[in-house]
Amino acid sequence: MPKHVGIVACSAEGAALCYRTLCGEAPAQMGEHMHPEVSMHTYPLGEYMPYIRAGDWEEVAGLMRGTAEKLVAIGAELLICPDNTIHEAFDLVAETSPVPWIHIADAVGHEAKARGFTKLGITGTKYLMTGPVYLRRLAELGIACEVPDEDDCERIDTIIFTQLVNGIFTEESRLYFNEVIAKLKASGCDAVVLGCTEIPLLVDPDDCPLPVLDSTRLLARAALKEALK
What we know:
By secondary structure, the protein is an alpha/beta fold.
């Protein structure tokens, strides 16, 4: 039997995309209308944000752990978190977990390695872009990374928290992301990580200046692969 996947959610739009991807792509491997058992839980994003803004990753880990405990209690055998930013607390949670987790940056990094990318542009919240989540995991795979400049980081962060997490996707914001990604291309990046799980709902891979690494869908696919082992 496939493993029961637990989704440790944080923001609704990204979690929904992860869930839809996992369930929508499973039938190709499992048969019509089939997917692994999936459960999802989240505390409100509003409970996470004070701790994220304060850089209090111990408290973020506490919320993640609370969700994980609920999911394991109803049978989850494998856990994923479709939120890049709170992966800064990942090790605090995963190291004592009774069931395995998949790290979102590992899913992205392995795909980048398989496709031969050597330098990735990172987009996401300012907490992610200035934090260690991707830097360390990618370095272990021999992959370099770069983030936008300070002004672009601030504007991207504003778009994420005022628009994307609220399901607002504008053409102006899409074109702005393309401008930022074009700058990353000019500085030598050969692909871009859509490192906020809502960004794939905005950026069009067919219109993007760089090949995209869709962290949300890559995590869902990694979970499906692991669940079917």
